[in-house]
Amino acid sequence: MSEFLWISIGRICVGLLTLANVKITTSYFSPSQYGQLALLISIQFFCSLVLVSPIGQYINRHTHEWQSSGILRQKLDQHSNYLLATALIGMAICCIFSFLRSGVSPDWFELLAIFLAVYWVNLNATYVPLLNMLGFAKKSAQLSLLGSALVVLFCFFSLKYIDSVPSWLIAYSSALLVPAFIARSYIRKYVVTDPDFERSDFLNWATYRDFCIPLAISAGLLWFLQYGHRWIIEYHWGASFLGLLALGMTLAMQIFGLVESVLMQYFYPRFFKKLDEFAAEDRSQEIAMSQIVNLLGPIYLLLAGILLTLAYPIVFLLGGSSYIDAYFFFAVGILIELCRSVANVFSLAAQIRKVTATQVPPYLCAIVLFFITSVLLYVISLPAKFIAFSLLVAGIGMVVMMYYLMYNLVNFTIQVGYWLLGFLALSAGISINLLFSWSENLAFLVLESFLISLPFLIVTYYIIFTNANLNQMLKCSLNNEKKE
């Protein structure tokens, strides 16, 4: 459990530093400036999700195989060249989006910010998590913590002395380059290389077509639901409204993603290791899928319940009075993140069977539901903030269809007891969010938050520590855990 402790402590510290950076940023940026930042970040995430993430999942799926064959370093060098090309594509996309939005091209400072964000952030997202995949969890946690600390430091000085949106993004990217370089050096030092390796294509066309392109399409649809809609919202309701919506949704993604990343960093490598061990045994793969679904799914429901309970205090503390209206978007964003996270767990079935094209229909369904719901909200003339419900309806449709399609691929088992406890926590969180009136006094607000959270500890114990699937996942060890 020492490895899990390292990962947990590291990710919690990273999360706290990330939230501190949000607090600093909202202290300097107006909602309008935050809305402009949200647009630039949406371009960076387009490149990360659509162009880089599918390749990253391919790397994850074959990391242990390449390590055993002594070709991992060479494959990663080829991937670094691909990231450089992706950064150039990001600049072109920035020009296109800017022209469509305002009819003018972005200035060189914005283009530089996008180039560095796409290249350096994705270098970090490749090498630092890969250390954990290889069994170097302690080093990965340390570098994640270093990167987050540098982000806070660099962004603070950028806001204090320059105070512009592109400079913030450049500072953010520069901070993440440092741990990326250290992680790359560590991997090159400790990963064995086959001297007889003959250079070949990073991946062949058949693999790219059958594995990566479907993932890219799915990621593109997911990108629209998470980030792409920002351009439509900014066009119709302005940057200030977008800033409030983006802050609420971003806080939901970051806080939910904090716990999700801890679980993924620890359990996903073990899950993929199990798949490699049981490649020829379909029933064993179904058991592995059932274990991770019944472990992570109820935890995500519990997490959503806790965050919905504490939604108002979180936004009050991190956003301040200028952003207090973002509380509504944060609460809806939690439910959207719940749908996304559970759908991601279900989608692992597509990687087991290596038919990633089956991930496309759920995201396509979500896009259709988003537009239909948006039109209905416009027709009945509801306030602009209810556009968030369009995203929630889309998320619910996505997770329902994802479950149906993935269950047909891998006949995994749903353990109803754990899921019912999770839904109980979620229902409690929704009820408290709607009915409880919070104090405006900071001391009372903290006390109320503490007292209301106590009952969730009981549910946490039963969902996590009495879960037999946890012990089954812990039995699978990684190659380098004892060497580090």
TrEMBL record:
Signal peptide: none
Compartments (UniProt record): Cell membrane
InterPro entries, per database record: Poly_Biosynth_Transport
Keywords on record: Cell membrane, Membrane, Transmembrane, Transmembrane helix
GO cellular component, one term: plasma membrane
Primary location group: membrane
Ranges annotated as spanning the membrane: 12-31, 37-59, 80-100, 112-131, 143-162, 168-187, 208-225, 237-263, 299-320, 326-348, 360-380, 386-406, 418-436, 442-465
Topology relative to the membrane: Multi-pass membrane protein
PANTHER family: O-ANTIGEN TRANSPORTER-RELATED, PST FAMILY PREDICTED COLANIC ACID TRANSPORTER
Protein name as it appears in the record: Lipopolysaccharide biosynthesis protein
Lineage, uppermost ranks: Bacteria, Pseudomonadati, Pseudomonadota, Betaproteobacteria, Burkholderiales
